[in-house]
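Pilot study result, target chain (426 residues):
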Amino acid sequence: MEQGADVPVTVRDDQEAAILLVLREVFKRCRGNAVRIQEILKEEYQIDIAYSTLTRCIKNAELRAPIKRAGEYCFEPGVEMQHDTSPHWVMLGEKKIQAQCASLVLGYSRKLFVQYYERFTRFEAKAFLKLAFEFMQGLCQRCVIDNTSVILAGGSGPNAVISPEMMAYCRMYGFEFIAHRIMHSDRKGKVERPFHYVENNFLAGRTFKDWNDLNHQARQWCIEVGKKEKRSLGMTPDAAFIEEKPHLIRLPVVPPAIYEHYQRMVDTKAFINLDTNRYSVPEKLIGKTLDVYKYLEEIRIFYQHQEIAIHPRLAGKKFNVSKIPGHHLKSHVRQTNEAFQGRENLLREYDEALGLYISTLKKHVRGSGHRQLNHLLNLKRTYPKEPFIRAIKQAHHYGLYDLSRLEDLIIKFVSGEYFNLDEEQS
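Predicted structure:
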């Protein structure tokens, strides 16, 4: 043996017997984690054992159940598709958010389609499946799902009850949902396995401007993935799809519209509120109750069966406003500005010193300065001109733009010149 070479650690039969005495208790305490078991044996029992030897001891002690032979689900073309969702972390703009990745895969050709949503309710489920069916140019006879409440109304596995809303959706396209048994997720393994690939291939190193950009890139990625050969198929998903496509259920000539209906009353600012966002409507409808239809990408608003507005849906946003030009008249704003300008001109013409003070005052206040000019106008109307202008000049000289303190200064000059009680008493 060469000098300095590492000598492998060996365990004698008596040492292995000693390890087995404590191994069962440590195995239970560490929940089967071999790395932690190795650390505990060294720290508490002064037993330094190689990892490979430890795993052999665990196997010999039959502490772990033997691996069972796994089967494989095989499907004829057009028979089965599988659908599921998974939470993924996504870089949207400069913010990392958690999004719901929805996926559909065809059981025979393994053709894959994924999209992302802020949340995944029955509305998003129906919208996603519609997009997926259009991407696949058809659909299979059955769709295997887990026991999610998004699609099920109750029960699980063979006893699952599909919600009436989703059952009606199935009838429109001519397929059925089937829920697998609890703890039997391998039943939809063809859609489960790609989630890891999506998260570590599609999302890795990518950032997205918004939800539309994210889903557009996801669609393009699915197209590229379909061109790559899969070892389990011995061909590309696109090639297998050529065989499967003639067996798919055709899409309806008129696809069902996916929307949610609400009724909203127009507030005093001529907006309706939906999902924490606000959408404008004509001012004449203030106080009226409108019918609001939420689609995946737009909001349609009706009054007495007449469409009055179409807004882009503010998906993935909160407390934002969508305003259509022409909904809100600006005459009252224009009138307010004209009245404000008239008051300002009146004050500037009153005295040159007051005009200089106003110009500097507007630079020291936030906003348009309407409130401050109204206050100045009230002071001008309340107090005599001479003490008022004298106080204005002194305030301008010392940079005093607090109008309450300016009024105190005016009162000081007024009381000194007009109410000199000491001179009257003498």
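One observation from the pilot: Residues 4-10 have pLDDT under 50 and may be disordered. A full batch analysis is planned for the follow-on phase.
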